[in-house]
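Board notes (copied after class):
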Amino acid sequence: QVQLVESGGGSVQAGASLKLSCATSGRTFSRATMAWFRQAPGKEREFVAAIRWDGGTPYADSVKGRFTISGDLAKNTVWLEMNSLKPEDTAVYYCAATSAILWSTVRLTTSYDYWGRGTQVTVSS
């Protein structure tokens, strides 16, 4: 059984930085795609960034240039470095993973088989 565990969330002031981590336990899988999504109160879960086994890294427009995703996909581990945080980045951040994905669907929640429980990020102005 695959389990994803996020860590690194917290409460910070606008302009600060945080680095989230996602570790996988249980079965690991090759050719993984791992991603970060977030969900703010009252809103739908939205795509933030992904990293594919061949190195592709799409980002949501809202975080492009501020957030950087990286990972050791051989260990099914992924990080999200978040800089210049804004109050609108406040959300629960979720890690997701799958072993098979169409690149055209990488931004969809339904494309991922495994999810973590999330870590809270709160950015105050």
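Comment from the instructor: The radius of gyration is 13 Å. The first strand starts at residue 3 and ends at 7.
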